[in-house]
Amino acid sequence: xxxxxxxxxxxxxxxxxxxxxxxxxxxFRSDLPIRKKWYSSRAGVALGGLLVIFGINQIIMYHxxxxxxxxxxxxxxxLFTAFNYNKRVxxxxxFVEEEYRLNKK
Length: 105
Fold this sequence. Notes:
Blueprint lengths: L1 H28 L3 H29 L3 H39 L2
Helix pairs in contact: 1-2, 2-3
Protein backbone atom coordinates (compact mmCIF):
# COMPACT_ATOMS: atom_id res chain seq x y z
CA UNK A 1 0.00 0.00 0.00
CA UNK A 2 2.78 2.45 0.82
CA UNK A 3 4.43 1.75 -2.55
CA UNK A 4 1.29 2.79 -4.38
CA UNK A 5 0.95 5.91 -2.23
CA UNK A 6 4.62 6.71 -2.79
CA UNK A 7 4.17 6.48 -6.57
CA UNK A 8 1.06 8.67 -6.46
CA UNK A 9 2.85 11.28 -4.36
CA UNK A 10 5.89 11.19 -6.68
CA UNK A 11 3.59 11.85 -9.65
CA UNK A 12 1.93 14.73 -7.77
CA UNK A 13 5.38 16.15 -6.98
CA UNK A 14 6.28 16.04 -10.67
CA UNK A 15 2.99 17.71 -11.62
CA UNK A 16 3.47 20.56 -9.13
CA UNK A 17 7.03 21.12 -10.37
CA UNK A 18 5.76 21.32 -13.95
CA UNK A 19 3.00 23.77 -12.92
CA UNK A 20 5.52 25.88 -11.02
CA UNK A 21 7.86 26.21 -14.00
CA UNK A 22 4.96 26.73 -16.42
CA UNK A 23 3.57 29.58 -14.33
CA UNK A 24 7.00 31.14 -13.83
CA UNK A 25 7.50 31.07 -17.60
CA UNK A 26 4.11 32.72 -18.09
CA UNK A 27 5.12 35.35 -15.52
CA PHE A 28 8.33 36.22 -17.35
CA ARG A 29 6.59 36.35 -20.73
CA SER A 30 3.73 38.58 -19.57
CA ASP A 31 3.91 42.32 -20.25
CA LEU A 32 1.20 43.50 -17.88
CA PRO A 33 2.28 44.16 -14.26
CA ILE A 34 -0.81 42.83 -12.46
CA ARG A 35 -0.80 39.70 -14.62
CA LYS A 36 2.88 39.17 -13.69
CA LYS A 37 1.98 39.34 -10.00
CA TRP A 38 -0.97 37.02 -10.58
CA TYR A 39 1.19 34.38 -12.30
CA SER A 40 3.84 34.76 -9.59
CA SER A 41 1.21 34.17 -6.91
CA ARG A 42 -0.15 31.13 -8.71
CA ALA A 43 3.39 29.75 -8.92
CA GLY A 44 3.71 30.32 -5.17
CA VAL A 45 0.61 28.20 -4.58
CA ALA A 46 2.18 25.41 -6.65
CA LEU A 47 5.40 25.74 -4.64
CA GLY A 48 3.48 25.49 -1.37
CA GLY A 49 1.73 22.38 -2.65
CA LEU A 50 5.09 20.94 -3.63
CA LEU A 51 6.43 21.43 -0.11
CA VAL A 52 3.38 19.80 1.47
CA ILE A 53 3.39 16.80 -0.86
CA PHE A 54 7.15 16.35 -0.52
CA GLY A 55 6.90 16.43 3.26
CA ILE A 56 4.14 13.82 3.28
CA ASN A 57 6.13 11.65 0.87
CA GLN A 58 9.21 11.75 3.09
CA ILE A 59 7.19 10.83 6.16
CA ILE A 60 5.88 7.78 4.34
CA MET A 61 9.34 6.74 3.13
CA TYR A 62 11.45 7.31 6.24
CA HIS A 63 10.41 6.67 9.83
CA UNK A 64 12.83 8.57 12.05
CA UNK A 65 12.26 11.32 14.58
CA UNK A 66 14.41 13.76 12.59
CA UNK A 67 12.33 13.09 9.48
CA UNK A 68 9.13 13.80 11.38
CA UNK A 69 10.47 17.11 12.68
CA UNK A 70 11.85 18.30 9.34
CA UNK A 71 8.74 17.20 7.45
CA UNK A 72 6.45 18.88 9.98
CA UNK A 73 8.32 22.15 9.34
CA UNK A 74 8.11 21.60 5.56
CA UNK A 75 4.39 20.85 5.69
CA UNK A 76 3.60 23.82 7.92
CA UNK A 77 5.69 26.17 5.78
CA UNK A 78 4.10 24.75 2.62
CA LEU A 79 0.59 25.27 4.00
CA PHE A 80 1.44 28.82 5.07
CA THR A 81 2.93 29.56 1.65
CA ALA A 82 0.00 28.08 -0.26
CA PHE A 83 -2.63 29.93 1.80
CA ASN A 84 -0.73 33.22 1.63
CA TYR A 85 -0.27 33.06 -2.13
CA ASN A 86 -3.86 31.87 -2.62
CA LYS A 87 -5.07 35.08 -0.97
CA ARG A 88 -2.85 37.03 -3.38
CA VAL A 89 -4.20 35.08 -6.37
CA UNK A 90 -7.76 35.98 -5.40
CA UNK A 91 -6.80 39.62 -4.87
CA UNK A 92 -4.93 40.06 -8.17
CA UNK A 93 -7.48 37.95 -10.04
CA UNK A 94 -10.03 40.74 -9.62
CA PHE A 95 -7.87 43.11 -11.64
CA VAL A 96 -6.43 40.86 -14.37
CA GLU A 97 -9.37 41.15 -16.77
CA GLU A 98 -9.72 44.88 -16.15
CA GLU A 99 -6.01 45.43 -16.78
CA TYR A 100 -6.19 43.45 -20.00
CA ARG A 101 -9.23 45.40 -21.17
CA LEU A 102 -7.59 48.75 -20.40
CA ASN A 103 -4.31 47.88 -22.14
CA LYS A 104 -5.87 46.25 -25.21
CA LYS A 105 -4.87 48.10 -28.38
